[in-house]
Design brief:
Elements: E1 2-5, E2 14-17, H1 20-29, E3 37-41, E4 47-55, E5 60-68, E6 76-82, H2 88-98, E7 103-108, H3 121-137, E8 145-146, E9 150-151, H4 152-157, E10 164-168, E11 175-176, H5 177-182, E12 188-193, H6 201-209, E13 213-216, H7 224-239
Parallel strand pairs: 1-3, 6-7, 6-12, 7-8, 7-9, 10-12, 10-13, 11-13
Antiparallel strand pairs: 2-5, 3-4, 4-5
């Protein structure tokens, strides 16, 4: 069944989909019709199965049946990722959402080539729409938080309440992810992904001062999107 997000918490046995984008996707892209079954989820992480009871150009009326309460989360994952060139951040948002990241922070660092003035509110809105679409496609119970583009200092300030904090880097003393995870079972993880030129030594020291552990992703030099997806996948497989 296809899944749709509703911004408000659902109460009772009926719900409406009135957002123009979602309605277009439901009616014109998926070609769903009255009587078709769907899944909806709300801001509380509750998931419902239901049936389309009414459908026109302005809204879809859903009759809800079974409710699945929000699951107990085993791991909270945040990923701060240096903004790469071109539109590759779009793919990073999409894939991290599918992998279950709870918070995504597009980030500027010293060696990021993309300039801050090129980032607009429209770009953030696009990223959040991508996260919404990926959440619906992957049948998540919640939407990830997608931050406006921010600097390293602000990102580090947002990492204070995370139990395990990691910064993959290409140089210096580093731990292997496998060895690190063998000795820990955290309930929250925050990962910094640097640009293809890596973090500067000063940035690595700043991250370490904030409690981040330098780690190695192997001998290969990975693209930003590859590193972000590889780390998120490993963490989710290791800790669920």
């Amino acid at each position: 069944m296809h899944s749709f997000y509703l911004a408000e918490q659902i109460s009772g046995d009926a719900a409406l989909i009135s957002d123009a984008g979602q309605l277009h996707h439901l009616r014109d892209v998926l070609r769903l019709r009255i009587g078709d079954e769907v899944i909806v989820f709300d801001d509380g992480g509750n998931k419902y199965s239901g049936t389309i009871e009414g459908l026109d150009n302005k809204r879809a009326v859903l009759r809800l049946r079974a409710r699945q309460p929000a699951p107990i989360r085993r791991l909270r994952l945040a990923v701060a990722c240096a903004v790469p060139k071109q539109a590759r951040m779009d793919d990073i948002i999409d894939k991290l959402t599918q992998l279950g990241a709870d918070s995504i922070f597009p980030m500027f660092t010293e060696r990021v080539i993309v300039k801050p003035e090129g980032t607009t509110d429209a770009r953030l809105e696009r990223w959040r729409k991508i996260a919404l679409s990926a959440s619906e496609q992957s049948h998540r119970n919640t939407l990830p938080f997608v931050s406006p583009v921010t600097g390293l200092k602000e990102v580090l300030a947002n990492s204070k309440d995370y139990q395990l904090k990691l910064v993959p880097t290409l140089v210096g003393q580093r731990q292997a992810l496998r060895e690190l995870f063998t000795d820990s079972s955290p309930d929250s993880v925050f990962v910094l992904i640097g640009p293809e030129g890596d973090f500067t030594p000063e940035e690595i020291q700043e991250a370490m001062d904030a409690g981040f552990i330098p780690v190695s992703l192997g001998d290969a030099v990975l693209r930003v999107e590859t590193a972000a997806i590889a780390v998120a996948s490993y963490i989710k497989l290791a800790f669920g």
